[in-house]
Amino acid sequence: MNAAVVQTFDAPPRYMSFDEPVAEAGEMPVKVLAAGLHPIVKALANGTHYGSTGVLPFIPGVDGVGRLEDGTRVFFGVTRPPYGSFAERALAASWLCLPLPDGLDDAVCAGIANPAMSSWAALTARAKFVAGESVLILGATGVAGQLAVQIAKRRGARRVAAVGRNPRALEKLTALGADAAISLELEHDALVAAFRKELMEFGVDVVLDYVWGSPAETLLRAITQKGLQKSSPRVRYIQIGNMAGGTISLAAATLRSSGLELLGSGFGSASLDDIRQALVEFFAEAARAPFVFAVKRAPLSDVEALWNDNEKEARLVFVP
């Protein structure tokens, strides 16, 4: 079959021939219709993700939309290396093979599921969010962050504060439901002040962090309380992505002086049942009322040329 194949961790995958997969127990063969180029796909392909096995060669892609042998159209997650979803055929894990509601576009489903799951599972499974709470989204101008704003509002957030760098995207987020927009382009002290104003005047129950690095350090500094008579409201800080850096410096006083709770959300911290449930609920909601989400379709044969495409406004989706 034709597939994108990772042959080395320091170069994009190449479109070439690869042996077809043979299903084993717990797997279902699927004809791939569309597969999204998510950040996790790139991280696994360059060997930097914690889920990387380090074994070459392999087909990238963690999920997609396809058809089972009986014709059922499904969203699926892939099973085992070396087979991924960037191919004409793949192996669907039986636990994550979900029939799709009619009316949902193949490429949109393939592009939206991973970023949607990131915030849906973070809110429901990790933060135990309840309607009426407030959410701050760090990295809201990215594809996943823009979707997270919509999801938080759909799930009943009292207030959503969107934080990011792109001024045009920040302006767009107010139309998508954000109640406040904070620019990461602010000078450091001004950014700390903006965060503290949001925390003190409006309250933040949950933080969804897609960037980590320096922006996270600044927000955590703002959360730090001064003095011994201050109340310490609970803040569930959910770490999802690390586009701004993989590590931070965290003062011990930040944890002792505040109601901060640091949690992660991703494969390993959210259970497989949590992930599946998040996707079932999300697709049902998307079928009821579509989310604003842009995809950029491309043939899989162009994977090598487009792999490092710096698309900021849409999720790149390959079609075999």
Describe this structure in words.
With 320 residues, this protein is α/β, with parallel strands linked by helices. It has 9 helices and 14 strands. The longest helix has 21 residues, at 106-126. It is globular.
| Structural category | alpha/beta
Shape: globular
Calculate the mean pLDDT score and round it: 94
- Rg is 20 Å
Give the SSE layout.
Elements: E1 2-5, E2 14-17, E3 27-36, H1 39-45, E4 63-68, E5 73-78, E6 89-99, H2 106-126, E7 134-138, H3 143-154, E8 159-164, H4 167-175, E9 180-183, H5 188-202, E10 206-209, H6 213-223, E11 234-239, H7 252-256, E12 259-264, H8 272-288, E13 295-299, H9 303-306, E14 315-319
Helix pairs in contact: 2-3, 2-8, 5-6
Short description:
It contains nine helices and 14 strands. With 320 residues, it is an alpha/beta fold. The strands form three sheets. Strands 3, 4, 5, 6, 13 and 14 form a six-stranded mixed beta sheet that branches. Strands 9-8-7-10-11-12 form a six-stranded parallel beta sheet, with helices on both faces.
Brief descriptors of the model:
320 residues; 9 helices; six-stranded mixed β-sheet
